[in-house]
Amino acid sequence: MALLQPTYEANEHLLREMIAVGEDIIDSKDLDLIRENANLNGESFSGKMSKLGSEYAKWYAKHFIMPKSVVRAIEENYVYVHDLDQYAIGTTNCIFIPFDKLLGGGFNTGNGSVRPPNSIMTAMALVAIIFQSQQNAQYGGVSASKIDHDLAPYVAKSFSKYFRKGVFYFEEEDGAEPSDIHMSNFELQLRYPKSFRYALKETEAETLQGAESLIHNLNTMSSRAGGQIPFTSINYGTCTSPEGQMVIDALLTATMQGLGSGETPIFPIQIFKCKQGVNQSPKDPNYALFLKAAECSAKRLYPNFANLDAPLNLQVYDPSDPDSEFATMGCRTRVLSDRFGRNKLSGKGNLSFNTLNLVKLGIEYGTALGKRKKADEQGFYHALDHYLDIALDGLLHRFDIQRRQKAKASDFMMREGVWEGGEQLAPDEPVGDLLKHGSLSLGFIGVAECMKALYGRHHGEDEQVFEKAFRLIAYMRAYCDRKSDELDLNITLFATPAEGLSGKFTKRDRQYYGSLPGITDREYYTNSFHIPVYYEIQAARKIRLEARFHDLCNAGAISYIELNGNARSNPAAFLSIVQYALSQQVSYFSINHPIDRCSACGYEGIIGSVCPSCGSHEEDVHIRRLRRVTGYLTGDFQTRFNSAKQAEVRDRVKHTP
Amino acid sequence: MNLCGYYPESINEGEGLRASIFISGCRHRCKGCFSPVTWNFNYGEPFTLQRQNEIIGDIARNPLLSGISLLGGDPFFSAAEVSEFLDRLYAQAGAVNTWIYTGYTYEELTADPLAAEYALLRRCHVLVDGRFEEALRDTSLRYCGSSNQRLINIPASLASGKVELWEPTVRF
Ligand code: SF4
Which residues form the signal peptide (chain A) (predicted)? Predict the structure, then answer.
């Protein structure tokens, strides 16, 4: 074990550090530590238990495992290693689950084997179980990239079952055995009208019931450590068979109906995949479902919209293979192209990511500290190279640990071939080269504050600064591409969804540099390449500016527009904004709007201090204020967000008042 | 004429994303009026030619707008000047769809075809008419405050000679 400084004082110091961590957690002293992840109740027993484990794991990794250069870069606040608690044990980040394969062949959870389902109801129940089983093999999001396509065969099975029943009960038998039983068989409909209609109705009802229970399950099963529910995402929208359409329709209906007493479901993250010719104009087969998705999003904040027509996503798109359609995992991650030829989604994922603090580099080499009149761009890029190398070293070092893990460490994932090829490994075999199909990602935060620090203005304020910002991100992408070739690995650029991080970098930079206006004077740094939430800018312009970055971020990015007002009552506005974003080649998009809920009467909409429906005052009844943070929803931003994210929500300028 | 408010983009005052322009001055004095300060014709900032051109520029440059909404106060108390503004807007930004809010009723506004109010009405596309009635207040209504208020399709109504209600173009 290599301690950085193996002296007596160092040992004393280590001990004190460890004791302090324990005390902070047990006494819930450090609220930001406890609320680092808005999805975890850090004040609960299981939350504290998992926090103790994870804080120790981080401490251990830093002192005994990681390369010194990386630890130093973390300590100097230049680099952030996400999910550091998982570093030493070699866990991987997120994955697209091949539901078609798992459902079609049956699977084993480790506690029992499961047969292929014979109805949509069972199939949907199994989807929840698969999500849950897989979640325990990794630390990031679990995603279904094409759940409509994956579930359509089970709608067909249910239909066939009901149809046969119908023929028997309605006595529509005509001697010949009905063949080719499926929902688009028009002949069947003519010959057995009653049975057909009955089967259709029953299947529809069953699909909806299945969708309801799926969404309920995904919001209630706290199976992850700390009582968290799995980070699930489901992507859909392009399956044009009547069975697939029924799945999409049912998921949207169930989402709009909401949970038990009508609350907005927080999971799964839902993503509607938009494609010209499939669901984008009135003549397209799934256009009605796109409208319904927009309605659902106006009501529930989900689904988000994935743009299959964006250039980055068209590169490997094959209309005959839904697994080649762009989709996202967790917050926004993608892994579509693979230098080893698996240019599709299912069966792989992101391995890990490290984020660069661009703001600190900006402060060091910019004009913000008043040390120079003009930004030292050469110095900036030189330092950038240095920290890119360190961040990459960290990824590679971690990758090496991940590769050495035995298949049985991520048992479900490997044994069942959730990660493609894992099923061929013996339990004691290391996962090794299989992981190379996944991506290693370099992320970034605070382009806006970085520009401000370098040039005095951010990229929303000034066109020349915008070009500088664009050049910076293009430079980082080129670095990733170059390193991919050199190292023969998938190294990708990520517009980091910074949740815990957005405040951490800032806090320490402010301690060091003081409060610099427009740079460190807020509690958070602006996410990735976004135009700051507090900056007034028209929606179209924000979309146009941010759109250009999407093509560069091949590990994922999202753009948001904030709407102030009841989005539900203005469908035209909602639709036009979504379609405008798609037309500008934004790859992944969503609209944020406030949803308040009065706990006295259940009214949902915008609530000031007084509920417009029942007149209750916020001091007397709880008004639940739902907001989106870094891609997923959190029950109530005032009680579960960390302070940086609370501040961000307060500062958001609505792009429409 | 004074401007008492301007939102370059809003989803609350009409269908689609709209630029909302609030003209100061109102003599209806509805009970429960949402902002009595706007009754004063001198409230807000002067709606100078320069400010008008700035706003027209915003509108012309914004590809996401479905149109504009004129509110107040009540723009019909400054009918002639608002008409001039609209002419300027249409000349520079093309065919902009215009919603206009008023405490008058459609019948009152169409009573005299020679009046400035009628001229303004003709330049607009959707009229949200009627005084705000506190007793009829309903927060579930789209784009208006009390249930006596109507959303009227102006060109259709002028053509047919009777009130034709506006219908949403996109429904969920
Ligand atoms: S017409 Fe409008 S501004 Fe005028 S008093 Fe009535 S509610 Fe107030």
Answer: none
d(CA A529, CA B73): 41
Answer yes or no: do A655 and B172 touch at CB < 8 A.
no
Taking only the tens place, the pLDDT of each residue in A149-206 is 999 999 999 999 999 999 999 988 887 888 889 999 989 999 999 999 999 999 999 9
Work out the pLDDT band at A392, boundaries 50, 70, 90: very high
How far apart CA A562 and CA A417 sit, in angstroms, is: 40
* Residues ≥6 apart with Cβ < 8 Å to B100: B69, B70, B71, B75, B76, B120, B121, B124, B126, B127, B128
Q: Per-residue pLDDT averaged across A391-407, rounded?
A: 97
Best to test chain A binding among B6, B11, B141 (most A CBs inside 10 Å)? B11
Q: Which of A99, A87, A95 is nearest to A128 (CA)?
A: A99
Check: CB of residue A616 under 8 Å from CB of residue A601: yes
- Four-point Cα dihedral A122, A123, A125, A131, nearest 10: 160
By CA distance, what is A580's nearest residue in B?
Answer: B64
Q: Does A576 touch chain B (CB under 8 A)?
A: yes
List the one residue out of A166, A169, A171, A149 whose CA is nearest residue A202.
A166
Quickly list H helices, chain B: 49-61, 79-93, 106-109, 116-122, 154-160
The amino acid present at A520, given as its one-letter code, is T
- Per residue in B42-101, pLDDT tens? 999 999 999 999 999 999 999 999 999 999 889 999 999 999 999 999 999 999 999 999
* Sequence-ordered strand ranges (E) for A340-481: 350-357, 439-445
Do you find a cis peptide bond into B36, omega within 30 degrees of 0?
Answer: no
Residue A321 has pLDDT above 70, yes or no: yes
Nearest Cα residue to A594 out of A541, A538, A644, A650: A650
Residue B73 region, left (φ>0) first, then alpha (ψ -120 to 50), else beta?
left
Residue A655: list chain B partners with CB under 8 A.
Answer: 9
- Torsion from C-alpha of A176, A182, A185, A187, nearest 10 degrees: 20
Q: How far apart are CA A15 and CA A413, in angstroms?
A: 37
Task: Please tell me the predicted confidence (pLDDT) of residue A5.
Answer: 54
pLDDT at position A499: 61
| List of long-range contacts for A368-375, beta carbons under 8 Å, 24+ apart | A368/A452, A368/A453, A368/A454, A368/A456, A368/A513, A368/A516, A368/A519, A369/A513, A369/A516, A375/A454, A375/A455
Task: State whether B17 and A295 contact (CB < 8 Å).
Answer: no
Residue ranges of alpha helices (H) inside A488-524 are 500-513
Q: Which amino acid is residue A324, in one-letter code? A: S
- Whose CA is closest to A183, among A167, A162, A165? A162
The runs of H, that is alpha helices, within A416-462 are 447-455
Q: For residue B35, what pLDDT is reported?
A: 81
Report the phi/psi class of residue A82: left, alpha or beta, with left for phi > 0 and alpha for psi in -120 to 50: beta
Nearest by CB to residue B9, choosing from A295, A298, A655, is A655
The full length of chain B comes to 172
User: What is the C-alpha end-to-end distance of chain B, expressed in Å?
Assistant: 39
> Of A302, A310, A308, nearest to A324 (Cα)?
A308
In whole angstroms, give the CA distance from residue B166 to residue B153: 4
Residue B82 CA to chain centroid, in angstroms? 10
pLDDT over 50 at A632, yes or no: no
B76-B79-B85 Cα angle (round to 5): 120
pLDDT for the residue B41: 95
**B34 close contact with A: CB closer than 8 A:** no
Distance B111 CA to ligand 1 centre (A): 21
Residue A82 has pLDDT above 80, yes or no: yes
- Convert A324-364 into a string of H (helix), E (strand) and C (coil): HCCCCECCCECCCCCCCCCCCCCCCCEEEEEEEEHHHHHHH
Cβ-based contacts of A564 with chain B (< 8 Å): 11
The torsion angles phi and psi of A144, rounded to 5 degrees, stand at: -105, 115
